[in-house]
Amino acid sequence: MGQFDFGRTDWGNANYTLVDESVRLTLADLDEGERQAVGLASKIDDVIKLLMDDRAGGKAAQKLNITVTGIVGILLAVKKRGLVHKVSEILEAV
């Protein structure tokens, strides 16, 4: 397992290698924020998950074998740990 430098400030300039032309085309259709998030996640150990609710961005990340979760996935994990009782109440409040 590699190390993640939380003090690093140049993540916005992350360069990433695309695995094939179809992935490049998929990323090309994403907004800049999603492209940067997927590019950064492709360079980080797979110890972390990419938090993304954008469907196209999530699909692009999965093509790069990046583990993706959304806000509902985070809420379900929190519920599983007993930190909240009802996810539905949280979602209704949002």
TL;DR?
By secondary structure, this protein is mainly alpha-helical. It has helices spanning 21-28, 32-43, 55-63, 71-80, 87-93; strands at residues 50-51, 68-69.
Blueprint of the fold:
Elements (H helix, E strand, L loop, with lengths): L20 H8 L3 H12 L6 E2 L3 H9 L4 E2 L1 H10 L6 H7 L1
Parallel strand pairs: 1-2
Please state roughly what percent of the residues sit in beta strands, choosing from under 5%, 5-15%, 15-25%, 25-35%, 35-45% or over 45%.
under 5%
Shape: elongated
Main sheet: strands, sense, barrel: 2 strands, parallel
**In order across it, which strands form the biggest sheet?**
1-2
Gyration radius over CA: 15 Å
How many individual β-strands? 2
Poorly predicted runs are 1-7
What oligomeric assembly is this protein in?
single chain
Distance between the termini: 37 Å
How many distinct folded domains?
A: 1
Please state the average pLDDT score.
Answer: 77
* Range of helix content: 40-55%
Secondary-structure class: mainly alpha
Would you mind describing this structure in some detail?
The termini are far apart. The protein contains 5 helices and 2 strands. Residues 1-7 have low confidence and may be disordered. α2 packs parallel to α3 (55-63). It has one domain (16-93). It is mostly helical. It is 49% helix and 4% strand. The chain has a two-stranded parallel sheet with strand order 1-2.
Keywords:
94 residues; two-stranded parallel ribbon; single chain; mainly alpha; 5 helices; elongated
